[in-house]
Design a protein that fits this description.
With 171 residues, the chain is mostly helical. It has one domain: Methane Monooxygenase Hydroxylase, Chain G, domain 1, CATH 1.20.58. The protein has 6 helices and 3 strands. A 3-stranded antiparallel sheet has the order 2-1-3. The model is unreliable at 1-5 (pLDDT under 50). Bound molecules: zinc ion. Zinc ion is lined by residues 24, 28, 75, 95.
C-alpha cells in the first residue's frame, strides 16, 4: 500500500509532460472501449507516487488476453511506434513489458500478434476515433480523473460531433 500522506497534484499543475500523459492514457482508454472492455477509471493526476497516470479496466478472461495486449500497445500504435515481434521481456517501457508477458504466457504467434495490433490500429485510425482521442485527452487535462461512464459519454459525444460535422460538410 502507498502512504495515505501522498497527495495528488492540484488541477492546474499540468505541464507538457501531462499533455503527453493525457494523450497516452486517452489511447489506452479509447482502445478498451473500442474493444468493448469496460473502463473503471482513467486518470493523469498521479494516482500513485512515481506513476503519472493509469487506465483501469475490467479483468479479461484468458481467451481475450489479445485485447489486453492491444490496449497496452494502443499509445504506441497511435504514435506509430509499434514494437516488433517478439516483444522483449526486458523492455523498460512498462506497457511493452506487460504486453510481452501476455504474449509469452499465451504463447502468442507472430500472426496472432499482427492480427491483434492491426485490429486496434485500424480502429484507432478512423476519423471518429481521432476526434474521441482529442476529446478524452482534453477532458483528462481538465479533470485529472475520469470515471468509466464519463469516458464512455465523452467518446460517444465526440464520435457523434464528428459525424454531424461530416454531414454538414456533405450538405
Ligand atoms: Zn501506458
Amino acid at each position: 500500500m502507498f502512504s495515505s500522506a501522498y497527495v495528488s497534484p492540484p488541477v492546474g499543475f499540468w505541464t507538457s509532460l501531462a499533455r503527453t500523459e493525457a494523450n497516452h492514457e486517452a489511447a489506452h482508454a479509447l482502445a478498451a472501449e473500442l474493444l468493448s472492455v469496460p473502463i473503471i477509471e482513467a486518470r493523469i493526476d498521479q494516482p500513485e507516487p512515481g506513476v503519472l497516470g493509469h487506465v483501469v479496466h475490467d479483468k479479461l478472461p484468458p481467451e481475450a488476453s489479445w485485447k489486453h495486449l492491444a490496449i497496452l500497445l494502443a499509445p504506441h500504435l497511435v504514435t506509430d511506434r509499434c514494437p516488433e515481434f517478439p516483444l522483449s521481456l526486458h523492455s523498460d517501457d512498462h506497457d511493452v513489458f506487460m504486453a510481452a508477458c501476455i504474449a509469452y504466457e499465451t504463447s502468442m504467434t507472430e500472426a496472432e500478434y499482427d492480427n491483434a495490433t492491426n485490429i486496434i490500429r485500424e480502429l484507432l485510425e478512423i476519423g471518429t476515433s481521432q476526434s474521441a482521442l482529442k476529446a478524452l485527452a482534453s477532458a483528462l487535462l481538465e479533470h485529472g480523473l475520469l470515471q468509466g461512464d464519463e469516458v464512455r459519454r465523452i467518446i460517444r459525444d465526440a464520435e457523434q460531433a464528428h459525424r454531424n460535422a461530416r454531414k454538414q460538410e456533405a450538405s
